[in-house]
Every structure is written in C-alpha cells, then in structure tokens.
Amino acid sequence: IIATARNPTSSTDLQELSKTYPGVHIVTLDVESQQSISSALEEVQSIVGNNGLNCLINNAAIGFSMDINAITPEAMMKTFQVNSVTPLFVTKAFLPLLQTAAAQSTGMGIHRAAVINISSILGSITCNWGEAANLKSYAYRTSKAALNMVTRCLAADLGSDGILCMSLHPGWVKTDMGGPQAPLTVEESVSGMLSVLSHLTDKDHGGFKDYRGDNLPW
Question: One GO molecular-function annotation for this sequence (predicted)?
Fold first, then answer.
C-alpha cells in the first residue's frame, strides 16, 4: 500500500499507520504540482519495480459550499483543478505502471489494474433535484460531475489495456471535509469501499457505485 500526502511529516495518523504496518509506504505528492507528480512516480516505481501498480485511487479533493450569491470564478476554477483535472493527470503519469501490472494478468479488477476515482453522489445530475438539491454547492457538485465524465473517458480509453476504471462514492463521512454531523465513520465507509473494490469485475468497468456496492445514476 502506497499512501500519499502533501506533507507527510504533518500527517501524524498516516505516520502511525506506517509504523504499525510495515507494508504501508508514504510518498510526498501535491497533485497540483506536475513536478511533485513526477517525483512521486519515480518513488512509486522504485517501490513496485517490475510488478507495476495494481490499483490507483484518486482521492484528493476540496469542497466549497457556496450558493449562487456566494460562488466566485476563483472557487469554481480551484475546485475543478483539484477535483476534476488533477485525477486525470495523475492517472496519465502513472499509466505506464498500471499497464505493466495489467500485462501480467487477465480479467478485470484490482487484482490486475484499476483506476478508482473517489467521486460523490453530489456529482450525480439525476439526483440533484428536489430535497437532494438543497445543498447549494455549485463548485463541488459540478467538479464531481466532471470527474465522472473523466472516469467514463478513461474507461473508454483504457479498457483495451485491461485497466478497469470506475467512480466510487464513499458516502457522507466524518472527516475534516465531511464534518462531525456526517452519519458514517471512516471505518464504516472504508470497510464498505474495500468490499466493493475486492469484488469488481469487467461488469463494473466505467461504472459509478457507492460504498455499499449500489449502482448510482450519472
């Protein structure tokens, strides 16, 4: 397992995990810096060697809760950059490692090679109606909708290489971004997502699921 952080020295929880589990490697990565992405790629390459990378999870995200009166061009562009653009270019950078892993197996799933984009049901255009539309988060919602399109584009491009691509909604989780009022603990969300990931097949390629394994509408 290779975990990334912009500043690993200040990520105390991550440091504790790496001490407890020797198989956890921590790599510095600022997804907004192409130089940082390139440096991270080199470090990951040295860790995985000729085995390649079996699963890339694009998890970095930011969120601004702004309605029509508060939203700004700067907030929109910043959110799109982090939530929609950087997952594409991180995937592009790590594609050779994914292709190396994919060439060594058959079928589709994380046992071979996969790109998992952590999305959100708030990015579902279908679901943004009625009571569900009360959260007026223009930047976050539209950036996650765009990320879902990135997922579909990647799925169309990488399927022939045997690389599964999908969007995954982790639920509303008690994190720094989700807040204390969220109904799910980190453990509940992660255990659900791990179960989903472990059962992925070619039927899930290009799909959009939640942490319970339910298919979500685009």
Answer: oxidoreductase activity
- Is residue 25, in this structure, part of any structural domain at all? no
Token pair recorded at residue 161? 């290489």
Question: Is pLDDT of 151 > 80?
Answer: yes
Number of neighbours of residue 176 by Cβ within 10 angstroms: 6
CATH code of the domain containing 179: 3.40.50.720
Q: Is residue 44 part of a domain?
A: no
The DSSP letter of residue 203 is: G
User: Average pLDDT for residues 87-106, to the nearest whole number?
Assistant: 99
| Residue closest to 125 by CA, chosen among 208, 211, 213, 66 | 208
- Domain of residue 83 covers 59-91+119-210
pTM, to two decimals: 0.94
For CA atoms 188, 194, 199, 200, give the dihedral sign. positive
| 19-23, 25-29, 182-186: least confident range | 182-186
Question: Letter for the amino acid at 52?
Answer: G
- H or E, element range at 117: strand 114-118
Mean of pLDDT values over 131-159 = 95
Mean pLDDT of 22-28: 96
Asked if residue 132 belongs to a domain, the reply is yes
Rounded mean pLDDT, 149-169: 99
192 membership: H or E segment, kind and range: helix 186-198
215 occurs within a structural domain: no
Q: Pinpoint the alpha helices (H) of 25-178.
A: 34-48, 73-80, 86-102, 138-158
Instruction: Look at the chain and report how many structural domains it folds into.
Output: 1
* Closest by Cα among 154, 142, 80, 143 to 116: 154
